[in-house]
Amino acid sequence: MPRMKGAELITEYLIANDIPYVFGICGHGNVGMLDPLYQARDRITLVSPRHEQVAAHMADAYFRVKHKPVATLTSCGPGSCNIIMPLACALTDSSAMLAITANVPTSQFNRSPFQEINKHYQADFVNIVRPVVKRSYQPTRVDMLPLALRQATTTMLSGRPGPVNVDVPFNVFQEEDDVELPPPAPPLNTQRSGASPEEIAGALDMILKAERPVIFIGHGVTLSEASRELTEFAKKLGIPVISSPNGMGCFDMMDRLSLGFIGRNGAFPANEAGRRADLVVAIGARFDDRSASSWMPGYSWNFPATKLIHADVDPAELGRNYPPDLGILADARTFLRQLLAELGRRGNKSGNTKAWLADTAKWRAEWDNFTKPNFDLHASPIRPERVVADCQAVLPDDAILACDVGVNHNWYMQFWKARKPQTMLNSWGFSGMGFGTAGALGAKLAAPDRPVVAIAGDGCFTMVPHVLCTAVEYNIPVVWVIWNNFGWVSIRDIQLGMFGGREHGTMFHQGDNKKPYNPDFAAWARATGVEAMTVTKSQDFKGALEHAVKANKPFVLDVHVDAEVRPPSTGAWELPPTPYNEPVFGQRWLPDAAPVK
Ligand SMILES: Cc1ncc(C[n+]2csc(CCOP(=O)(O)OP(=O)(O)O)c2C)c(N)n1
Ligand SMILES: [Mg+2]
Fold it and tell me: Does the Cβ of 431 fall within 6 Å of ligand 1?
């Protein structure tokens, strides 16, 4: 058995797992890891951003684009505490990363050395991180590392992927032992679960019988790489597809069968079809409040009047919000392949959805008639629709959009048409501000030959503006479109609606005089060495974006967007105890749905 330091073993194990990057920040706790990374620097690259939050968002986005994980490295105490929020983003959206954290030396456990958390237990980072990872491991001797690393990487990628933590005490990086490198973990999707023949037969019976079926897809379809199978199945049977944000692009959203996203910030045809369907086939989707209109019947869905087939790899998601008529514990791609095979056995029967598709076409036309005129309006400040439309016009189909959080994101939810999987990154389950602004760096490292554009609210960007330093230091050519509306406008709008039109703490002002304030983002970018332009007229945005993408270097576009134009509601998002009272576009109530409040 080779004699190795703990940190050497970790480094070699990362390399053996084809992990090309470690995103992390130094501290005294993890210096022992830096030297082996230096020795192996032509096989694994350390990227050191200016905040641990950025490192973990980068790792998250890297995985979403490539479906291969990278590692983060943070020091003991505060450095590792800084990754809690991005780990929560990754966990709630089933994104994987190996978070290596450092801790105090084992011989000092419980003596309250510098940066130990020990109120309830020694070196207690594992209890800080526990709710936001699939599993945390704390090997306290070098000979415990092989098992911990193998279990951690396997757990990270098996079943429903997610972040894992390996917490390494200071001495374990440095000490030596005779240790064998464990075998690498099986890559994502090596082991897939499937449905039983009876379940598949039953599901297809229900699907072929349905007159108004809808497929609802979520991140599970993206993660299982089931785009081809989904497309074949939906097209063979003529079933329209509704997508959650992290499923977007698995089915070409320009296709006539694509209805877009559902819920308050979804598209009208999706909500109209969702609530009128006689059967919903949900695959790798979890019916969260924002894609289920807070579960109020008749807004987005209408269970139990509508029948539900729900397939997911995670039993915790089956029936969490709507008890399925048929719940199937299966990987999305396997499930779709099984359905296609069964359909083939039955002579490739076609669906009976002609009338239903005519309905959906009518709703699409109604929605288009309502929304399209605004896409052509030029104004200063710029109308939100124009920013979305010009991004769509300029960016190629394989460009990656790293969306941050806020009303800017709502506009993309409603109107962006992703055409390929893994091109539209969203922090959906946790909505961590900074995800898109920072994640864009990781996305670009995962796909160096494709344009990567971060859509960042002015609030989100200001949370992690040092991403620009990292882009310069490592030459990562990301374009940041700063959606500058001079405030936390998504929250301001909720505040105005709930509290008599009063604004407090939700807009950016200079002193007491209520003059809108923001830094000059372009000047700020230039100070970091990043090229930048300020865009205040809609006529200028398209050309500016083309220029920035073509420049192929880090670029900031400070785009002044009208804060007073709001996305239309097509479903609901209720926050109890406040009753939902936004007008809902085109809402026509179903007799068996709850009455209008
Ligand atoms: C880290 C974090 N803090 C606070 C929030 C709550 N929050 C959600 S959206 C938002 C405002 C976003 O502002 P901005 O980035 O300017 O986007 P806008 O809504 O103005 O388009 C806030 C504060 C959050 N989701 N994440
Ligand atoms: Mg804003």
Answer: yes
